[in-house]
Amino acid sequence: MFFPHSQKRDSGLAAAMFPTRRPGVTWTPPGRTPTVTRRGPERTNGLGALAPHPPTPGVRESRSSSREPLPSGCLRTARPRDAAWSRDRGGGAAVATSQVALRSRRPGAGLAQVRTRALIGRGLGRDRALIGQRAERAGGTDVEASADWPRCADASVYSPLAPARSPPAARVMVLGRGLLGRRSLAALGGTCARRGLGPALLGLLLHHTDSRKSLTVEQGAMKVESLPALTDNYMYLVIDDDTKEAAIVDPVQPQKVVETVRKHGVKLTTVLTTHHHWDHAGGNEKLVKLEPGLKVYGGDDRIGALTHKVTHLSTLQVGSLSVKCLSTPCHTSGHICYLVSKPGSSEPPAVFTGDTLFVAGCGKFYEGTADEMYKALLEVLGRLPPDTRVYCGHEYTVHNLKFARHVEPANTAIQEKLAWAKEKHSLGEPTVPSTIAEEFTYNPFMRVREKTVQQHVGETDPVTTMRAIRKEKDHFKVPRD
Prior knowledge:
Function: Thiolesterase that catalyzes the hydrolysis of S-D-lactoyl-glutathione to form glutathione and D-lactic acid.
Region (Disordered): 1-90
Number of strands: 21
Family: Belongs to the metallo-beta-lactamase superfamily. Glyoxalase II family.
GO biological process, one term: methylglyoxal catabolic process to D-lactate via S-lactoyl-glutathione
Helix content: 10-25%
């Protein structure tokens, strides 16, 4: 049904869910001047604007676009309803890509301004998902800062749901029973792993091209290949060259994992899950179907397909590689980092930190406190060998370093790392791994004991400083430079 005209602008949600009439003229008694109401995209300037045809006195358009005479004194034009939208409103799982220009840029129409419109007819519930931690990376809002649900990992934002940064892929926002594709988003997580939701979202996200490149780092007899996933996630394939056995860290895209395993000609035996959020654990159940017999490790009962629950300092083997589990609760209560090393090797170990430690940043405190994050970063990870290579769960480096520069504008290590990271980002190359020693030079969350960081927030206690800079980063507007 159509809704009466209003002098107020529609909110973004209303505009997205209920299409309004296009420029039209309400009924006018004979002898009075007709009042034209202009709404929506039918304006003559601006992006996506459509030029309206002039109304003809005494004539109206039917739904089939035929022109019919009106009673004397009436002047009206109407636009046929978007057929694709009508199908979507009917509850189907149609994907509508036509008429996207009809959602123009007007105040409050954020949810309706789309390039890709993908509507999935599934009930989403009130899940507080993890939308990418990464809200609008290219748009000036900190990736972690969005409070919109679903939520994200480091912050806003994801950002928690979708594919690559270059070129922009899709941002997914929840709208009633469907998903509306929007430009550039983060990754999903949290309780979004409900039955039916994960596969639907994954199927949508994988339709978009991820142009980021993988990277293989050889550490003696251990080989680590970073596999870009979704918008800015990383999966990691860890290979023991001596036995040709392998483990995968956070396999959110199972098919990509299987293809990479076959490319290397190794045997996948182990899944290492850092935490239960969908953009890290959401591929477990499918992967164990594709590769029966896998051992799935994690520190949280909410992890799908879990076969071995681990705790702090638990150990396991992947071929001849030794894996030590490090409990780092805060982002989630069951978060585990995995320290992998080759006994007897002079090569540095590797630590897979999920959403606890990022290059120049840390994850949001969704299920923990500043005190817990301080212990995780400074007392657990910070005590690892300085040359330990850090493989984190997301590509947030450029935005994290911009915040670090804001905290310590005179820190040359931050400025140099930022210039390097921008170059890598422009080439679509990973900025991981870093090292523990490097993090102490430019990561403000690892530097909460430094006077320059404490002075920035006006605190003297490291834990209080941790809390203050996390809060500041949650609302930090990322500069576009």
